Amino acid sequence: MARQVADIPEAALDRFRAGTVIPAHPLALTAARTLDETRQRALSRYYIDAGAGGLAVGVHTTQFAIREAGLYEPVLQLAAEMAADRARDSLILIAGVVGRTEQAVAEAQVAAGLGYHAVLLSLAALRGASEGELIAHCRRVAQEMPVVGFYLQPAVGGVPLPYSFWRRFAELENVVGIKIAPFDRYRTLDVVRGVAEAGAEDRIALYTGNDDNILLDLLTPWRLKRGDSTVELRIAGGLLGHWSVWVKSVVGLLDRAHAAVAADRIDRDLLALAGQITECNAAFFDVANDFRGCIAGMHEVLRRQGLLEGTWCLDPEETLSPGQAVEIDRVCRAYPHLNDDSFVAENLGRWLSP
User: Fold this and answer.
1) 3-class DSSP state for residue 319?
2) 339: how many CB neighbours lie within 10 A of its CB?
3) pLDDT value of residue 342
4) Rounded to whole angstroms, how far apart are CA atoms 141 and 146?
5) d(CA 98, CA 256)
């Protein structure tokens, strides 16, 4: 059955539009590279108990290869079960969908059947398509599910998407949000401008996926001209692979950012955190090696906390890069105020229980 924005529970939609923490959910594997259901559930429990307002599953951090491995539906189902058990209607569930139109529609239908509220739509498989073809693809998927647009950075396979695309995308009726992740200020502005000029700022929530600029995205007022008026847009929250770790602290950070924006007062200590977070991200995402170890890097942080047993990925070649563990050591020592180790230690046994 096709779903519309109006089908999203009011509490979850309000929380999403106000801005919340949405971890991009990793994939827990055994040493044999099979699904570790116990730890997969534990991750979802961790995120929900830490105060996340949503889960994004089947996205990059979950590993796109889950589809070929036959794990797409089982992994989405586990997260949906944990959400139903612990969060009821207050949590927004977002499923990643990929591929050309037939595949993306089929995945959206799977997500709808499992109770997901929206889909995060990757356009990477449509490289070379015209703008009109891209919009037609988005419109077709939006007939099945509310859509969160996704501007993935071209450096890791994303498609360059100009302002004109985002203006047309923002006019689609069943669009509920956009994850802005080009790692580029010019391209970020293309998205914000497109939403503003479409007059869609009240119904489309903007989320940062710019892992290199998380906090500044959340603090920046985007003031743009629309006709004779000036409109101000805000990036409300984050849907991030970086936010799959240290989530309890992240929730507090977002609350602090929202409070600073509401008071129109941003102190220097808050701005200083922006650089510290970006430095941690450089280590976790393996920027020095063109992001090759980004998933394994996030796994390593979770492994050190006991949430994962190892850093295994579906692709045996996808591992930590040489020197990456040393960099993770360094930023963990340098910025202990950013972790949530004590929160995890207090609750880990409960999360790992059947």
Assistant:
1) coil
2) 19
3) 98
4) 8
5) 34
CA atoms of 10 and 12, how far apart (whole Å) = 5
Tens-digit pLDDT profile for residues 247-262: 999 999 999 999 999 9
Q: Which residues of 184-222 are buried (b: 16+ CB within 10 A; e: fewer)?
A: beebbebbbbbbbbbebbeebbbbbbbbbbbbbbbbbeb
Q: Compute the distance between CA of residue 64 and CA of residue 204 in angstroms, rounded to an integer.
A: 26
Q: Which two tokens stand for residue 313?
A: 């990925």
What is the mean predicted confidence (pLDDT) over 209-225? 96
Which residue, among 279, 115, 116, 308, has the nearest Cα to 212 in the 3D structure?
279
Nearest to 191 by CA among 229, 216, 217, 214: 217
Confirm if 258 and 19 have CB atoms less than 8 A apart. Answer: yes
- In whole angstroms, how far apart are CA 312 and each of 132, 161, 198, 280? 40, 33, 43, 21
The answer to whether 211 and 245 have CB atoms below 8 angstroms apart is: no
Within 10 Å of residue 55's Cβ, how many Cβ atoms? 28
- Indicate the helix (H) or strand (E) that contains 218: helix 214-219
The one-character DSSP state at 337 is G
| Contact call for residues 242 and 214 (beta carbons, < 8 A) | yes
Q: Which two tokens stand for residue 47?
A: 């995120």
Residue 153 is encoded by which pair of tokens?
Answer: 């950075």
Name the residue with tokens 């509220």: 117
User: Cα–Cα distance between 283 and 249 in angstroms, integer?
Assistant: 18
**Local structure of 106: helix, strand or coil:** helix
**pLDDT digits 0-9 by tens, 91-147:** 999 999 999 999 999 999 999 999 999 999 999 999 999 999 999 999 999 999 999
Per the DSSP assignment, residues forming a β-bridge with 205 are 177
Are 314 and 285 in contact, with CB atoms under 8 Å apart?
A: no
Q: Per the structure block, which two tokens stand in for 333? A: 């020592």
- Cα angle 117, 120, 125 (rounded to 5 degrees) comes to 140
| pTM to 2 decimal places | 0.97
